[in-house]
Amino acid sequence: MKTRNVLQVMLALMAAAFLAACGAKTQTKEPAPATVSGVAIETVHTQSGPEYYEAVGTVKPETSSVLGAEISGTVRKIWVKPGDRVRRGQLLAVIDARTQQAQLEAASAGVEESVQGLAEVRQAIQAAAAERKFAEATFQRYKALLAKKSVSQQEYDNAETRYLGAAANEKATEARLKQMEARQRQAQAQHSSAAAVLSYSRIVAPIDGVVAAKSVDEGTVVMPGTPLLTVEDTGHFRLDANVPANFLGLIHIGESVPVTMGAEQAEGRVIEVVPAADPSTRTFIAKVELPTNCHCQSGQYGSASFAVGSTTRLLVPGAALVQRGELEGLFVINPDGMAYYRLVKTGKTFGNQVEILSGLDDGERVAVSKIDQLSDGVRVQTS
Question: Which domains can be identified in the chain, with CATH numbers?
């Protein structure tokens, strides 16, 4: 009997507990969703804009000078190495020029000889002129005396002959003067040529810049045309971009183009378009001048975006994007004002806006502020 009573009590207690639990469940309400106030919301729309082609290329110095030998000889000394900064007119290397030095000395002797010869001829002209004047005066006097029959015909003829000989001698001396003047000019030209050839033994920097390459070592025998050093102007760079041939008429000199070099972005300017296309790649080269303050290096990889037409694209403010690991997304606000995270695929960046390639439709609303306070199912209120 006792056992039966105990069981009845236990059943009653279990029933009471069950009814109490059911009543608690019936009275429990779901909590209201969290609310974030002051969220800026923007409705995105498809926009028309220019279509760009991103052409890759190589950064090159605006001026690159390959210094080659202009005479034959042995490289005696090289004063610089790659990476050294040099100034215009600085001596970089020397080629043995003993033969050229001898030629210059011979030319100098020829100039000196012509100067002395010219001085002698000028003195001879003065003497010939004085002799001609004396012979002319004597001839005129004998001519007057012959008219008075005070001198014989023989004496008159002798005076005339001396006068004509003196005049001819003066003209011959003047001709010699012209010859000596021509000889002096020739000697001076030979001297200038020899001096120029000798100067080729001194390799100097034609520009301010950096030594980019050294092609020979000291003791190397070089011939005319042998490259010795390369000096690049590091103050002005350009990007030689390869552009498909079908865009040739769409790129114009003077237009501004955005340029990317690694992590650096800059604004460049088209300074030259090479119209001849490479037959192997069907591309032509557009040369883009880079800003003087760019941190560029010769040979660096770069790209330039050329406007080649127009297109439509869906753009969102860059502030709307949320990076989660390797994925990008944004918070879309539904008509009820609830925020939901959605993955998207992004494209190019245009200023402070980013192109959305997929994951978002025209006319949808996205949150552009207080992104770090949002999560799925959060209600947002605009400011």
Answer: 36-48+314-381 (2.40.420.20), 51-61+233-311 (2.40.30.170), 68-97+201-231 (2.40.50.100), 98-198 (1.10.287.470)
